[in-house]
Design a protein that fits this description.
five-stranded mixed beta sheet; disordered N terminus; alpha/beta; 14 helices; four-stranded antiparallel beta sheet
Length: 465
């Protein structure tokens, strides 16, 4: 840059001279022996007033005027050196900043990119074609899950286990063994009153798997609630256990790098990929800065039932800062779900109603064949849990086939002779959109006038199936 600057300025000045001007004519007439003045300018020698007048002339508005007023190339060289150094420094800083991952400025993200998040980013890198033959470098983490099908938003899921309940222990071990339920979230944790071995997690390159253990949640045994005695629940009065569990979780790094935190009862059959579909619309943009949670039961008003509790990252951040406010609530006669519901209200979190989130036999009941529900409660043994899970999966497969054939159930039509083409609004139930639309047998069980229909591609009309 220092070598080229004088030449470039020399050429620019020549181009800036008006054609036919005395300066241009004189400049063109200069020969090898007549370039003393130009050499004197570039070599830092002093110029006479006459020489200055010639070189400046009518070009005082261009960049050479700076050189003439500087009277010395030495000053210009110093300025050029400073500009060059500043440019190198700026380029170095820019390259270093650009190399940082998005969202890491002014923050320590060293722990955030481990576990499931690291696994997903490595998978995305391979999918983009970085090197399809190169195996992602993944560090196994006991809290790393096995997400499938739908990989965003990222979920942290946990269950609180009763160590003295063999059915709960067996059900949680089965979820990890089969990589379903909470084990199909990006990250998962099980808490219990004692450290319990739950199974094998992800494996190292040599085939050795990490051990998955429950986290110890020290708490005293609790009794059942009694509505007649003034309790607000007839279930376990387990609020203190869950207060301890929340404190353990929010003080750890387990929730970092995830978009939603999900508490799942051990006896709640859970499909993380379906939950992602429910919360996806709330997982992007500025709305993610607003603390949010879900109410999933519509019984004498919207309520939060504890089989499945869902909170966004902003709600968890607020809880980590203001947990002491929630502990001051009069929770002695509450169940844990009422506690966290009122806690979120105290923290100013925005409640979202989703009454199709859970099929709970205590509220908003739905059978396992409903493929939109993210969870079903309560299935208290490993056998009944797997039975519901398999039924729901088979229903998904059947409904996908039904959707491809455009099958539907019409429970009432305006023209009994052509029910499939005169189905009344609201009387049409498609696969995955209601019990009647799940199969032909279920459709016929929805009333004497119910008709099972499909779309005929040849006639472009609906016909009886």
């Amino acid at each position: 840059a220092l070598v080229a600057a004088p030449v470039l300025l020399h050429l620019c000045n020549r181009c800036a001279m008006p054609a036919g001007s005395p300066q241009a004519a004189h400049f063109s007439a200069l020969g090898p022996d007549d370039n003393a003045n130009a050499n004197a300018l570039f070599m830092g020698e002093e110029l006479t007033d006459t020489e200055v007048g010639f070189w400046a002339g009518e070009s005082r508005s261009n960049l050479r005027l700076f050189l003439l007023r500087a009277r010395s190339w030495k000053r210009t060289r110093i300025l050029g050196t400073c500009l060059l150094i500043a440019g190198v420094v700026a380029a170095t800083i820019s390259s270093n900043v650009a190399a940082l991952p998005s969202g890491t400025h002014h923050a320590n993200k060293s722990k955030e990119m481990v576990g499931a998040t690291q696994f997903l980013e490595a998978a995305a890198s391979n999918a983009s074609g970085a090197n399809a033959n190169e195996k992602p470098n993944i560090i196994p983490d006991p809290a790393m899950g096995w997400p499938t099908t739908v990989l965003w938003p990222r979920l942290f899921c946990f269950s609180v286990l009763n160590k003295d309940n063999p059915h709960e222990v067996a059900t949680l071990k089965m979820q990890i063994r089969k990589q379903i339920g909470i084990a199909a979230c990006e990250r998962f944790v099980v808490l219990s009153g004692a450290k319990i071995y739950l199974g094998e997690g992800h494996k190292w390159d040599n085939g050795t798997a990490v051990d998955v253990w429950s986290w110890v949640n020290p708490a005293s045994p609790v009794g059942m609630g009694n509505l007649q005695a003034g309790d607000d629940t007839n279930s376990f009065k387990n609020t203190e256990i869950f207060i301890n569990a929340w404190k353990i979780l929010i003080s750890s790094s387990a929730l970092e790098g995830t978009d939603w935190s999900v508490k799942v009862d051990p006896d709640a059959v859970f499909f993380p990929e379906r939950l992602r579909k429910h919360v996806k619309k709330l997982s992007w943009g500025t709305q993610t800065k607003t603390p949010m949670y879900f109410k999933n039961c519509n019984f004498h008003g919207a309520k939060l039932y504890g089989a499945l509790e869902v909170f966004n990252a902003a709600a968890m951040q607020e809880l980590s800062k203001r947990m002491s406010e929630c502990v001051q609530l009069p929770w002695g006669r509450w169940g844990e779900d009422e506690f966290i519901d009122k806690c979120m209200e105290r923290l100013g979190a925005e409640a979202k109603n989703d009454f199709a989130l859970v099929g709970d036999h205590r509220c908003m009941s739905a059978e396992c064949e409903d493929t939109w529900r993210a969870s079903f409660h309560d299935y208290k043994s490993e056998r009944t849990y797997l039975d519901c899970w398999n039924r729901s999966r088979k229903s998904e497969e059947h409904q996908n086939m039904m959707k491809e054939g455009h099958f539907f159930c019409c429970t009432f039509s305006s023209n009994p002779r052509d029910p499939c083409n005169s189905c009344n609004p609201g009387a049409r139930s498609s696969p995955g959109k209601g019990w009647c639309g799940s199969s032909k047998n279920q459709c016929h069980g929805c009333g004497a006038s119910a008709s099972w229909c499909k779309r005929d591609n040849h006639s472009k009309r609906n016909v009886l199936a």
